[in-house]
Structure formats: structure tokens, C-alpha cells
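Input sequence (327 aa), recorded before submission:
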Amino acid sequence: MLRFLVRRSLGAVVILLIISMVTFALFFAIPADPARLYCGKVCSAENLTMIRHSMGLDQSVPMQYWNWLSGIFVGHSYPGVTAHCDAPCFGWSFVKKDMVLNTLLDRFPTTLSLTVGSAVVFLIFGIGTGMLAAHKQGKAADKIASASSLIATSMQIYVAGPLALWALVYGTDLMDLPTYVPITQDPIGWFTGLLVPWIVLSLIWTANYTRMTRSSMVEQLSEDYVRTARAKGMSGTAVFMRYAWRGAMGTIVTVFGIDLGVLLGGAIITESTFGLHGLGELAIRSFIDSDLSMLVGVTMVAATFIVIFNIVVDAVYALIDPRIRLA
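Predicted structure, C-alpha cell format:
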């Protein structure tokens, strides 16, 4: 198991290195003059020169990348901007007038809260409904669950979000207006402020997990070892929970790990719809403001989460099915 994790971890480092090269090239090597994007439409020659020197844009692209990469581990200095950016240094934002890492750390708790809360909701209801549909295959409960999941899957957050706000907040005052309050300051306010976004975000994901769980369970119930267990006289419930459910876990764990990494990288549409200042909203704002350093930072954070959770998925899957460790 240890060798398996070491191989996966080394592969993840290589993947992140390649992603960082491609990302840096997209934002700093391909544009003809990245400094002018920083400076805006109205930019004096003095400001343009200062930005090029401060950001190291007057150096070769490989040297720019090396300075950025080494700054993550040993820090980096930005002449004329600040004394020193301590490690891990992801760059300086001319738009925010602050270190990229400071902004990322400020926005991350919102995205983390939104991700964890919605994940709890869609896992409980999605998997539970999918198991019920598989257990009642062909019956009314199965048809209702399948039809509901199909309708929910076709919904879009930018449509469901405003409808939920009208139905639950503005029209009826049943719930609080979505906002983020640190859980350490006000746990109740944290819960009530994110409840509507959790419901809306989990709506589509619940539908996806319902369909996935049902199809995986139905497939497992038709396997030979399940039929053998039934032939030996084991009860239907025992077969369902002990054999079919464990066999279906592999697919669910794999998809959940990827989904969780994507959500932690920023739920862009959800955060924008409800005015939550997380990593997703930061990515959009950075794109609009041509904040290249911030865009690189957000992209790398999102990529890191996806890669890390893929390793976690591999580890959990290896525990479920030891044959995976040989791959």
C-alpha cells in the first residue's frame, strides 16, 4: 500500500508541474505584453516600465517561470512593490495590492463551507434515493426517483438559484439571505447563511448521484456472486447491503473524489449567483480585471485539489479492492 501511494504521489507532483508550466505559459508567455494587461487601457510609460521590472516581465519566460516556481518554496522579492513575499509565495496582485496567497486564504473558507455543506446534502439524499430506487427496481418508488433525478439534472444553477431566492427568501422570508459568516464567530449564522446555496448546489449533484447509485446497484445485483448469495438463502436486505452496496462503492467513491476536488477549486456559478466571495467568484473577478497573478494562483489551487483528491480516491479504492494496488 505504501509503494502504491508513493507512486501516485510522485505522479501527482509531475502532473502539477506540467499544469503549472501550461498555466504560466497561457497567462504570461502567450500574451504579447502581459504588463499592459496589468496596467489597463490608460497606462503611462513609467507605470508600464515599473510593472515589467517589479513582476520580472523584462526577463526571459523560462526565468519568469523559475522565479514564480521557486517563490512557492523559498519566497520572492518584488522590487518597488513590497520587501519580500514569504514562502509559499504565489505572486503579487497589482489589482488587489496584496499578495495572491493572502487573497486565496481569505476566500477559501467560503468555498470550503459551501463545498462541505452541499456535499453532505447530496451524498445523503443522492445515495439514499439511488439505493431506494435500486431496491424498488421497476416499482413506483423507482420510477418517481428516476423521473425526479432526470428533471433535477436538467436544471441549471443560474435558473434554480433565483427561483430558490424568490421562494425561500424574498417571497416568504423562510430563510436568511445567503451570506458567509465564519463558523468560529457565529455557527448558527454560518449555517443559516449558507443553507439556500447548499440546497441549490446539491440539487443537481443529488440527481447525478441518484442516477449513478441506482445504475451501479442494479449492475451489482445482477452479478454472479450476488445471485450465489441469494441461492444460499441469504435475505434480500443482507445481500443488498453486504454485497451489492460494497461493490457499488468503487464507482461512487471515484466520482465523489473528483467532484469534491472540483468544488473546492471554486463553485463559480453558485458563488456568483448568491454573491458569495469564494474562489469561484474570485476567478471571474480576476479575469475581468486582468489580474494574471491571481488567475494563476486560483488555477493552481483548483488543480492541486483535483490531483490530491484523485490520490485519496486511489487510496480508498485500493482499500476497497486490493487488486488496484497492483496497477
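Checked by second reader. The two ends are 11 Å apart (CA to CA).
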